[in-house]
Amino acid sequence: MPTQNGSVSASDKSAAYAEVLDRIERLIAGETDEIAVMATVACELHHAFAQFSWTGFYRVVAPGLLKVGPYQGGHGCLTIPFERGVCGAAVRERRTQIVEDVTQAPHHIACSSTTRSEIVVPVLAADGSVRAVLDVDSDALAAFDETDAHWLERVCGLLAACFSPP
Ligand code: SME
Q: How far is the CA of 30 from the centre of ligand 1 (A)?
């Protein structure tokens, strides 16, 4: 239920995340193919939250290079070197990146002219190596906060079992 200013309360957002996390866990139970799992996660997250305009993964495919993986939304750029973008920062710093206003983030790579805010979560394998990032864009300003970071990190934790040692 949106609050007076149209934003979603932290408790309502958490309830929605708990529901989609449970659904994802049931859908991917026993699946270890990373592409199948990523496609399922991108689909379920994207359709669970109206403010998600682009939801998908970039995979570490070579030292210093990310390539687009399964996603929902408009065209996503195909490759991102680690030194560029919000996605590159998430890999380099091994830390979730929250951008409340992309026009104030000079390192942001714009795949859509309508994107206003973004969150990017590193995806770790069981050995702690970063193997992908989950990238979510919104056409709303400041759409993401620590509640989103907490729950999207839990979702990304489900992928650890999909990655064999590098
Ligand atoms: N905005 C991302 C690039 C990927 S598009 O959003 C799908 C970045 O700055 O790394």
A: 30
